[in-house]
Structures are given as structure tokens and as C-alpha cells.
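Friendly challenge for the regulars: who can give me the C-alpha cells for this chain first? No prize, just bragging rights.
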Amino acid sequence: MITLDTNVYVSALQYGGKPMEILQRALRREIEVAVSAAILGETLRVLHEKFGWPAEDLESARSLILSCARMVTPNQTLDVIEDDPTDNRILECAVEAGAYCMVSGDRHLLRLGEYAGIRIIRAADFLRELMEG
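First reply, four minutes later:
Bragging rights claimed.
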């Protein structure tokens, strides 16, 4: 089980590339992904506010994410990253899901390197490890 940061979903849906490759692997059930309401909500908010996605495209994005990820509800609130408290929602999802890895492009999370035994790596590194693995 892995958790994807909001920026991975946004990058995948807006630009494609390696983040979209990860989503496609999840759609094909090659990997298991956990998502939380906080991650889903933030993804849709960013797509709408920063990129002007209309409601129907946001609904399609929501459906796509929910079709390839398992919804989890974190039972704890973490306060690990003070510089950007919203990053804690990503950690909460990963911890609740029992993820072994979190994929992110966020410098605050990447600087941690790992949390509670969960490795935090970039999309390109995750895909490279999958290919080697």
C-alpha cells in the first residue's frame, strides 16, 4: 500500500508524466493506493482554484481517484510538519493505511525521508524501484 501526496494527483491529472504513470498502474491494480477525504478534497480544490477546472471535470477526477485508490479515514491527528500543516494530512493517511511508501514532490515531506517506517520518495524514484523490483 502506498499513499500519494496531493501534488502527485494534481501533477498526474494536469500534466501527465510519471505521476500519471503511477495512477495508471493503480488503475490496472499493479499497486495499491490509499487516499483520504483530506487528500481528495485538497486535490480537487487545487485543480479548481489554480487550474480553473470546471465542476464536471472535477467530478471526473474524483471518480478516477476513487476508482484506483482505497479511501481511508485517519484516526489520529499528526503535527509533524510545522512549516506546512496540511502536509500532516498526507502522513495521517499513510499511517492509517499502513503504507510502506509515500510518493511526494513536496520538499517538507521529502526532507523527512521517512516517517513511522514509511519511506517518502519522488514519483520518478518510486517508478524506478518498481521497475527494478
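The mean pLDDT is 96. The two ends are 15 Å apart (CA to CA). Your move, everyone else.
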